[in-house]
Amino acid sequence: MALTNSSLVTIDDLSNGEIEGLFSLADNMSDSMKEQLGICQGKIMASLFFEPSTRTRLSFETAMHRLGGSVITASDIGATSLSKGESIADMARIVGSYADIIVIRHPWEGAAKVVADYAGVPVINAGDGGHQHPTQTLCDLYTIKKERQSIKGLKIALWGDLKYGRTTHSLIFALAKFGADILFFPSPGLEVPEHVIKKLIIEYGGELEKYGSPGQAVKDSLFPLDAIYTTPNSPHQLAMMPDINIEVELKTGVDALYVTRPQRERFTATEETQELQGKYPVVDKRLLKGKAFRKTLVMHPLPRVDELAYEVDADPRSMYFKQAARGVPIRMALIALLLGIKEISIPREDDSFIQKTDYPVYRRDSGIRCPNPECVSIQKTETKYIKSEFKVVDREPLTLRCVYCEHGFEPKYVASSDWHEGRLDNKIYHSADSHWAKKIRPENLIIFDSENEAEAQDFKPSQSVRAHHRRSDDKEEK
Ligand code: CP
């Protein structure tokens, strides 16, 4: 099977079989490093890192050198023409005409997709803001697989900043795909975003049990446990009693504890204050003495700050330096596959439970924009050519998912292009949750950010919207 000319933007771009095939190739390359020197001779990799990096950038560059290829690099937006206002699409076209493959890290969510859309060569997402970091996930899965042989049925705990930690977002989907159970231990206020949870449940199946307060979580409370995801592959169902359920989950032990640092560079002022107040949980020898962690792999994508004590480094359960070192064979295998220099045979596919849904797509020249301020699609330099585009992932309530950053949201107002055409008196907008809204066919749907936007486009409020206004006005008068 060839992955020639494909791009890796999110972990969904690879099937389980392709990931397993890539791991076998990484094993082979690891065992025969000298033989790989020269297989990419004459190929050029562009390494564009517009956020700081040690591991990802240097392991990609090492990987290309070990394959005998060459590397061109840019590591500071200020030293590129992006700082003069050039768009990402134009940069991608240019770099794609110089290099055979592009690796990009960028602070905007969805930036790697834009590069992949315009470059004309394979593109690898090396981290796009708080969205995803799929090659880190490959290193993480490879490590779990090497240490535990299989991922299916394992219990993996995710710890720390689950809100902005892009490595955890890709990892969540990958673990679900491979049939692992996931325990969420976020630092307070840094829980997994709702749109990630929603995608996990709708597309990967399984069940999510949420806990009201960390105090409720477990009696021996070193755990700020927030939720447990149980894969549809799991032989057991979640117990109805949350406390009993947690004890059952932890009794058999946690197979891996995936620690992440606070992503301070993405924090709001409130989140910064919370973190400064010492609310961020720390993994140290004392925590790892707990029964649940007897055989736990301690993982971290690195870099670490204060959340993982140095005293753990000598512990045989610590895996983080192995994860980083394994980045070289994993990235060698990936580069060789995307350049079409190597092929893989795909082992038996085992992701049949994943719902591959072709959602209707909402795309109009003007109107609603992604509400995520970090999304590439709303940045000034990019709006000249990117049209906002959303998957309609639900109609009740109407829920959109941005195709760039994958943030989900529920817009408030809609209209139908069918009803208003040629009949100005019927140019009416409705609340998105009204029964009228639900009757609009996807191809006729017009969605508004606000009433002002609907009215600026000459739509008039429906009776129910007007009634809602009257009720709000009455309340204000009282
Ligand atoms: N894990 C990881 O992405 O590390 P760097 O930021 O150093 O590349």
Q: Strands, helices and their partners?
A:
Elements lengths: L15 H16 L1 H4 L7 E6 L5 H12 L3 E5 L13 H11 L2 E6 L4 H9 L3 E6 L5 H15 L6 E6 L5 H12 L3 E6 L7 H11 L2 E4 L3 H4 L9 E4 L11 H10 L4 E4 L9 H8 L8 H4 L8 E3 L20 H6 L1 H12 L22 E3 L25 E7 L2 E5 L5 E2 L3 E4 H4 L7 E4 L3 H5 L5 E4 L2 H6 L3 E2 L1 H15 L1
Parallel strand pairs: 1-2, 1-3, 3-4, 5-6, 5-9, 9-10, 16-18
Antiparallel strand pairs: 6-8, 7-8, 11-12, 12-13, 13-14, 15-16, 15-17
Helix pairs in contact: 1-14, 3-14, 4-5, 6-7
This protein binds phosphoric acid mono(formamide)ester (CP).
The site of phosphoric acid mono(formamide)ester has 11 residues, from helix 3.
Can you tag this structure with a few keywords?
478 residues; alpha/beta; 4-stranded parallel β-sheet; globular
Report on this model:
This protein has 478 residues and is an alpha/beta fold. It is 34% helix and 17% strand. The chain has a six-stranded mixed β-sheet, with helices on both faces. It has a four-stranded parallel β-sheet with strand order 2-1-3-4, sandwiched between helices. A hairpin with a 2-residue loop joins strand 12 and strand 13 (398-402). Helix 1 packs across helix 14 and helix 4 (88-98) crosses helix 5. It binds phosphoric acid mono(formamide)ester. Phosphoric acid mono(formamide)ester binds next to helix 3.
Kindly summarize this structure in a few lines:
The protein is 34% helix and 17% strand.
Number of helices: 18
Tell me, what's the shape? globular
Unreliable stretches (pLDDT < 50, length at least 5) are: 215-221, 236-242
Order of the strands making up the biggest sheet:
7-8-6-5-9-10
How many E strands? 18
Q: Could you tell me the mean pLDDT? A: 90
Ligands present: phosphoric acid mono(formamide)ester
Cα-atom Rg, whole angstroms? 24 Å
Helical fraction: 25-40%
Oligomeric category: single chain
Percent strand:
15-25%
Q: Give the biggest sheet.
A: 6 strands, mixed
- Cα separation of the termini: 69 Å
